[in-house]
Fold this sequence. Notes:
By secondary structure, the chain is an alpha+beta fold. The chain has one domain. Helix content is 49%, strand content 21%. It has 4 helices and 4 strands; from the N terminus they run αββααββα. The chain has a 4-stranded mixed beta sheet. Helix 1 crosses helix 3 and helix 3 crosses helix 4. The longest helix has 33 residues. It starts with a helix and ends with a helix.
Amino acid sequence: MKSVLSVIAVVSMCMLFSCSEEAVDAKSRVVQDSLVNVLPQWQALKIKIGDNNTTMLIVVGDATFYKASPEEKSKKAVELGEMILRIFGKGNYLEKGNLIVTADIHNTSEAPADGISVPIDFEVLKKSAGK
């Protein structure tokens, strides 16, 4: 009887984990669909969530945005972070993110050679939004 309960517990945990992963994947697709609101000319995108859903890497191929000033990139990173937090909702585990911008509109790499990295501090954004 104990072994049956143990198996049920393990299966339940696996189902819970897979549902959680499916929810994260669905929210990542919403981020992709909504990205045009922040970066209207993006052409390549890679989103990776890691470290127990606490980190997010967003790699965007956008030749126009690549040429933007560092201040504009920082401003857009904040806008993107705020949008992501709205999509993921309260109770998310996101702590930090990284927006990498590349001029390569066909990019599929997580670390493009010409990539410009802009941090996204989700914890600070959560505090400023009162979440």
